[in-house]
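One record is kept unedited as follows:
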Amino acid sequence: MKVNVSSEIGNLQGVIIHHPGSEIENMTPQNAERALYSDILNLTVATKEYSEFEGVLRKFTNVYEVKDLLIESLQSENVRRELAHKVCTNEKAMHVYDDLLELNVEDFTKAMIEGVEKKQDTLTSFLSQERYSLRSLHNFFFMRDASISLYNEVLISRMANVVRAREAIIMETIFDHSDTVSAKTVNPINYKDFDPEITIEGGDVLIAREDVILIGLGSRTNTKAVDFLIERFKESKTTMNIVVQELPYKPESFIHLDMVFTFLDRDNCMIYEPLIARHNKYQTVHIRIDNGKVDFIRFRNTMMEALQKLKFDLKPLSCGIQDDLWIQQREQWHSGTNFFALGPGKVMGYARNSYTIEELNNNGYEVLRARDIIKCRKNLDDYKKFVVTIDGSELPRGGGGARCMTMPVWRDKVEW
């Protein structure tokens, strides 16, 4: 399947996911913060919740497990060598390079995701508080961040934290070498204008329309990444609009734009209203690129105003209860705006955000429980607009929702 994604809501034909495994338990309260968690997770509960999420996806579309794609991509010894060298060099772990190459493809793949434990063959390693030579990818089930489907290409992310850098290296390997999913990859490090300070993650990039993308500017994505994209769009000689929304650095629930804004339908979006719809200290900037040059860069009062000027006719729905800041904060904290669209008006999100789900229901979205879909008690084809609710007590504590856990590779074109 070739990558083809030109919106956030087009009918989903293919998506990459990663079912969380032992890697999410390979942490302690002492190193959870280093792993970018605010708490440790229970694997049994998280797996049960994720199975609901995955089960609904499989009822609707083609689902590709990243582990299977990586195994397929690593059939060549040369590709394994290249990946091992990149990872070991980046993580200063060349002492495990030869050991990795002795593994079969399945065990090599497992090592890339679940980590490699240190050999306790020296006093230094025996006494070390560090258990791993290559640490586990605790965040990899948040598939959205390490690579970004941009139209017919895949932008390889520059992760803001080194603990996640291997995820992007793996995704580049997959898109370069898999027969199942493929695309031209765009990696900032391969360009002459590369700035090593660039950081960009997929949760901050939303494709609003073929000529409009939204980018969050905060703790994970910076201005230099936006500048890099401006240069790439200038090369295409087409008209492109970039709407940049500045985000708070604290609390950590604001790490990505999709934690405060997601598209639901042609005429609906879910917003964290205090940031997205009210004038505040966080800046919104509209950049227009036309015929190979920057046409203008202008401030807008809010992101909703910027979208309106771009001819979007959107009714925003509020995460939590409008004008009740406490409830808005509580539900935003647990990914209350982070919905994933299976198609126009067909979305998935956490059941725990009850006020947000009620807001959707009041605006014409039928509320369907994931377990009813999986057990064939309800058929998605019977509903024009719906929200599938996923039971989530453990997964939200990892810091993301339904959009965070998906990497679309093909969406049908939307007729606006």
Observations:
- The chain has one domain: 12-411.
- The first strand starts at residue 12 and ends at 17.
